[in-house]
Amino acid sequence: MESPLYVARPILPDLSQLNELLEDVWSTRIVTNEGPLHNRLEEELKAYLGVPVAKLFASGTTALICAIRSLGLTEGAEIITTPLTFAATAHAIAFCGYKPVFADVCEQSLTLDPAAVETAISDRTEAVIGVHVYGTLCDVTGLQDVCRRRNLRLIFDAAHAFGSQKDGTSVGMVGDISVFSLHATKLFHTLEGGLITTGNPQLAESIRLIRNFGIASEEQVDMVGINGKMSELHAAIGLLNLPLVEAEIAARAKLRQTYDSMIAGRPGLRSQLTQPGVKLSEQYYPLIIDPEEFGRTRDDIYEEFKAHGIYARRYFWPVCSDFAPYQSEKVHSVQAIPVVDKIKDRVLCLPFHSGVKVNHIENISNIMSK
Ligand SMILES: *Cc1c(COP(=O)(O)O)cnc(C)c1O
Predict the structure, then answer these.
(1) Which protein residue has the closest C-alpha to ligand 1 atom 7?
(2) H/E stretch holding 370
(3) Which of 5, 10, 54, 333 could form a disulfide with 45 if both were Cys (CB 3.0 to 4.6 A apart)?
(4) Best residue among 160, 183, 316 to mutate for probing ligand 1, ranked by most atoms within 8 Å of CB
């Protein structure tokens, strides 16, 4: 059997280049605490993403926690989000002491449904977290509209949407705050890391303080903070990975076309919604399998792939509302989540990176067309 094929494969820079960058770090011994490489990466990310503020973090989850904390919500506040996301989205809410309330997604985009949000609002609701899941953009206008009318804060978990744009505007510029993960499984990464973008200077200042224990100066601590800082080693990887992103996006865009033509005209199979004016980040290729129409279930395909050393992932099954902590603590799932309940058994993310070769695609195609 061939070597295993995974859903993601991290881009990695030349090791000798990394060594060169690290020589400066070794000579100055400035290894963390907003060091020169860290600050350079923040500047480069601002330029690359076209955003006024980019703050680096030790992980996407820490960034989410700091973003939520920066809103200064009332104790016991509810935050409405989608259950069809990685655990971190819901956990960040609960970890901050707030209550995640799960609402349904739109059938086509699989992102948080503004109408479902509206129904889920209670008198304790203070914020909404939309997730650009698989890189499909949320109904940003719809969510902004609900949040404006009902006086709610709006955060976007943009972990799957690095570099994504709508009509030329960065996804990092919508809502109050956007949070990216720079984990190794993500398109652009720093091994472990996170990133916050915001157009709101006041929030930016709070976020910067919360990231560093709330320390404003040597003599002054302004708020309860955490250690969310990114080290110089991680920043070095980011500086070297950033120029590699475009080539990786191009390779994935080509792979997307190949997968698209593989499933074209096949009953019971669909992929990501095509969104006009959207520049995709090319994070995932989700396949949605209708078992009746296709004749086989998602799990059949998953197992068969696995038997051939192809590790597709059932993102995101189980969904967050299935997790034990959210069942026992009686999180309000105010309403039913019929779309999520259906989709969670149908979605399969295919291997999606520049390491997927012609022979892999043949293999995948053969399994699919059995
Ligand atoms: C990866 C991911 C995160 C968390 O990121 P970490 O950097 O691993 O902490 C948050 N939300 C979503 C949707 C993710 O996929």
Answers:
(1) 60
(2) none
(3) 54
(4) 183
pLDDT for residue 328? 72
Q: What is the rounded CA–CA span in Å between residue 332 and residue 315?
A: 23
Distance 321 CA to ligand 1 centre (A): 17
Contact 287, 341 (CB under 8 A): no
Determine how β-strand 125-131 pairs with β-strand 165-166.
Answer: unpaired
Strands 278-279 and 269-270: unpaired
Q: Which residues line ligand 1 (CB under 6 A)?
A: 59-61, 85-86, 88-89, 131, 157, 159-160, 181, 183, 194
Query: For residue 338, how many other CB atoms are within 10 A of its CB?
Result: 12
Q: Which of 138, 181, 186 to mutate to test the pocket of ligand 1 (most atoms within 8 A of CB)?
A: 181
- Give pLDDT tens digits for 147-165: 999 999 999 999 999 999 9
Tell the burial category of 58 from Cβ atoms under 10 Å away from its Cβ (0-12, 13-18, 19+): buried
What pTM was computed for the model?
0.97
